[in-house]
Amino acid sequence: MRRRVALYLSLGLAAICVGQAFLLSSSQWDLKIWWAMGNAFRAGRSPYIVEGGLPFIYPPIAVPLLAPLSLLPFEAAIAAWMLLKLCALAGLVAIWRQFVEIRGTALEVLYFLFAFGSALTIDFVAGNPCTFEQLGLWLGLLALSRGRIFWFCAAVVATAQLKISPALMLGALLLVPKEPRWGAFAAASGAFLGLLGLQRLLAPEWFAQFITRSLMVDERGPDNPSLYGLIRDLAPDPRLSVLIWGAAVVLVAALSLRAARRGSGDVRVRVLLATVVYALIAPRFMDYSYELLLPAGLYFLRRPGLTVPVAAAIALPLPRGARLLTQAGRVLQNYYPLACALGLFALLLDEVGAPLTDTR
User: Is residue 254 assigned to a domain?
Assistant: First the structure.
């Protein structure tokens, strides 16, 4: 009876969180930009010049994909967008079940709501297409875990055309298979660059505006709690920060490849490691992007002795008042999703080298 009541309460809380997308006037800020972009595009103006709000900083291919939302009144566009995102989330859960056990308990509902700084909740409230991006990446990772290299490459390359950074997930070709697939990695990287070049060829003016606006963005924690953002905060000199970040990327990649080659670990765990590696090396990894790591965190929640510390670290952020204590507290407050990712990285390095018992 207690478990049922807890589940109902957690589901009610989930409904409230999702309801924020409809009820709060300050929500759906990303969707407002795309809706305005669609109106500008249909009026014959540049989609990269919208009135008010944040700039539109997506490649030209995003314009025809997102512009149809502007055919609807904004309230109807929100409803349609949320329905599509809930369908995408259902697809994600179905895929995640192939990698980690999901029981639908109250604890899991709360975990999905609040893990990594409420990444999933922020995504729904912001109106960002992150859930669709995650679905594309996880479809590719599911294919890779089953040895379907072509479909993995196709999924990642297609997803990366919209947000660029997902192209880094092609590095999973060197980490997940028993032997690195350098040929596929080179071919897929070439395909990504070729399609990106095609966008530049077909829409040169838009592409130039996309590059210009992208270079103007300098987001850091808490909106962009990435490793590169943290390094930028700690080493303000741009050249020094790039050098340190490059060294960090090499170190993360080297440790991951060494661990993957050291043992014959379960392919599912190597996939989880690949997601964490991508989160660490991506120069721009927004707060909502951490929903990519939800399966990795949930995997360790299933481990005896790790449930309480992992849940406390991942699902419970540092209290707001604590950040006033020290500069380190402020940094942790802004970058604690990254701290969680680093913790998962350390756990997965130890885990990936050894065969796992099937716990599904």
Answer: yes
